[in-house]
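Q: Could you write out the predicted structure for this multi-component system? I'm mainly interested in how the pieces pack against one another.
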Amino acid sequence: MRRDILAWLAVAALSFPLAPVLAAQGGTVTILGTWGGQELAAFEKVLEPFEAATGINVEFTGTRDLPAVLTTRVQAGDPPDMAALPNPGQMQELAAGGHLVDLGKVLDMKQLRNDYAPVWVEMGSYGGKLQAIFISADLKSLVWYDPKAFAAAGYSVPTTWDEMMALTDRIASQGETAWSIGLESGAASGWPGTDWIEDIMLRTAGPALYDQWVAHDIPWTHPAVKRAFEIFGQIARNPRYVYGGPTAVLSTNFGDAANPLFTKPPGAYLHRQASFITSFIREKNPGLVAGEDFTFFPLPAIDPKYGVPALGAADMIGVFKDTPQTRALVRYLATPGAQEIWVAQLGKLSAHKRVNPNAYPDELTRKMAEVLVNAQVFRFDGSDLMPPAVGSGAFWEGVLNYVGGEDLDTVLETIEAAADDAYTSGKATD
Amino acid sequence: MRTGRSWAWSFVAPALLILGLYLVYPTLATIYTSFLDRGSVHWVGLENYGYAFTSPAMLTAFRNNLLWLFLFTAATVGLGLMLAVLTDRVRYEAVAKSVIFLPMAVSFVGAGVVWKFVYAYNPPGASQIGLLNQIVVALGGQPVGWLLERPWMNNIALIVVGVWIWTGFAMVILSAAYKGIPRDLKEAARVDGAGEWQLFWRVSLPYIQSTLAVVTTTMLINVLKVFDIVYVMTNGNFGTEVVANRMYKEMFQFRNFGRASAVAVVLFLAIVPLMLLNIRRFRQQEVER
């Protein structure tokens, strides 16, 4: 017994100078995120070289109910080591509560500022400290179509909003439907509609007013917001323009909404959805070739003054526990190599400047990355930035009610009431 | 006598301690939190209760909970009683009862997912994957968006799921009570010239009265807490909100601990009288035995 203790002390004494190195070898990192299926498999691929090199075991737990699970665990004082957060709003709340580790102490900030455009560093920061890094981005302002069906019907890709609406009308006059939209997404139903409205806001009101809207410096009853809803409603509420009419819009799952594009004959010709929809299209319609059977054009400009802005979302990694293992992992995830594996597996886009374009799995994804890089204006998904009671509450619900036929002024007043309340009471705790 | 009493206390103490730790303390903490702001920092008095009783979302939730209260309870107890009496007379009683009781084994979330498929909607012309719309279309009708038609159709569609799960439970308890009616009593009534209908209303029903009351209050308590079905199937959209789902949203989606606690307290206060009623009934039953 005594010899055991002595031996243990000897080992401890010897390893003391080596502790920083030794501690990085082995051990575990727990990560909580929303990923499952394909995304999880891709993340495991990303981790493979890391685990092999360091001997650190990474345990990922995926839940679609991340906010609830994370809230509970953080409040209970039992957070995971790290979390993959889908929205900056939640990151900011966690950072404001002092739960996140300042990554400025972990990463080489000079290198990071070289690797990421300022907008990404700023979005990952709170209180002047880097609280999270972005490992990939999704571009939302895309309209998907089947080029073969387009060619067969003699349609050409619209370059302006007016051309797009003229095409919509032409398709309708031929007794067919132009658009397919699906707003159903379980407990998160409504979000695809908020993306539409954000995209339209950027195109009709411009980025400055968009920022004011997201920060609730203008009310929801503002004419610009109302106009964005109306432009969306012209399509989503019109049974001639949208597949199955508003009832189908409300009851179709977002992941299934692209399917009518690929039936013979097509149930619809156009589908506005983010870059990640490609994995759904492939999964539900095996055999389709990206770029040949489905491709995209950027959602066109409405007001030439504001051009073609890009709306997007991104996956961020935040750290709750400052350990040698989490430090090693976050440093690894910030490298172009790690992100190349991730984007190659999923067809996601990287915000990292040193990621090799050849890492993207196909021409289509490279084209999307090009749109993201070349956009005059990039804005993060607004609903993700708003207080959750608005962004993932009243706004989601409002879009559903509007498409369901409720009067627009009532819808906007209801969201405004919720916003009034959420933004002021949000400030009260700061 | 004295030692006997302190002995008893030492047996009860661990239970009391656990009860205090896991029930009394959280209850008190929730009540306290309900007077604080969203982050549980500042005292806001009754503000959260103002929200809990006057916000449009909560008013819709109250309306729907009331609808659930009446329809769900009436349907589960009514159908349960009917099935208890009817299955009592068939040869394949065990099988019939098992089938009706089976949904009890399905979790609320599971049932919600399954029934979401039953109610699934596809545009006219496309193939209907939803059972109900398949039937409607086969009969020559237009597919219906069951979970979208407010304010009654979608709420009733959700209540049906709850009834599907709980009717078996009501049936089993009521059936046990029904079988407990002494044979002589029924025969005596028959000899006195009572018809089957009279027998049921005048003899059987009064005899199982207290069980009926316990089942009813149990169902009322159940339905006040209804959450899973609504969360999975509509998340309270299209006017199907219920109180418990609102509590969940305020707590976990909006992270407004004050409001969530106030809604929880309101729900708790609504259930307490029913609980007391239930306990009293139980005691009466014990005395009768």
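A: Regarding packing and overall arrangement: Residues 45 and 341 of chain A are 7 Å apart (CA to CA).
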